[in-house]
Amino acid sequence: MITNEALERVRGWFVGRLPEEWRSTPPEITVDREEITVVLTIGDVDLPDGSSDAERDEARAGRTKAFREDTRGRRIEIAREAEHRFDRKVSWAVRVGDRTELFTHVAAPAMTRLRQPERLVLDTLVDAGVARSRAEALAWCVKLVGQHESDWLDELREAMSHVADVRTKGPGA
To answer: Could you name the domain of life of the organism this protein comes from (predicted)?
Structure first.
């Protein structure tokens, strides 16, 4: 469990370490047991009035690609420092307008035991061509729950973070 203080330390470090030109908007930082994800927001594209959605999408894709290539060396350097300091991998993403692209990420395995009714759900998704395997079907289910229950999950994470903070202040901590 990540405490509020631990999350604040990671966020603070990145705010202090990121180059000024990357911080026109505060970075969005998410931390779990394995990974720190840093989402940087860069300026949107400036297109003439009447530009099509396709043109805007491609312009944003181009700006994203340019930012990724132009900042690769500095991002690697910062990630190595953070990985050493926080003992977690660092992943990067960039947001341009309504487009967010994740450059790198950790795909951590999660083992579970499922009873037949749960396996049948996964097998139905595989048989219907929604997923290629049970593992992909399970990941699809988790994404779907995360999208539809995000407010509830955010509230639950906040409550768990408060519990973790209290534990760190208890006896023997």
So the answer is: Bacteria
Estimate to the nearest angstrom the gap between the alpha carbon of 166 and the chain centroid: 26
Task: Identify residue 98 by its one-letter amino acid code.
Answer: D
Instruction: Tell me the one-letter amino acid at 88.
Output: R
**Nearest 5 degrees, angle CA 35-CA 115-CA 160?**
35
pLDDT of amino acid 147? 82
State the greatest distance between any 2 C-alpha atoms of the chain, in Å, as a whole number: 64
User: How far is residue 73's CA from residue 84's CA, in Å, rounded to a whole number?
Assistant: 17
For tokens 């509230």, the residue is 155
* CA atoms of 151 and 76, how far apart (whole Å): 33
Q: What is the pLDDT of residues 73-123, one digit of tens each?
A: 999 999 999 999 999 999 999 999 999 999 988 888 878 899 998 999 999
pTM (2 d.p.)? 0.72
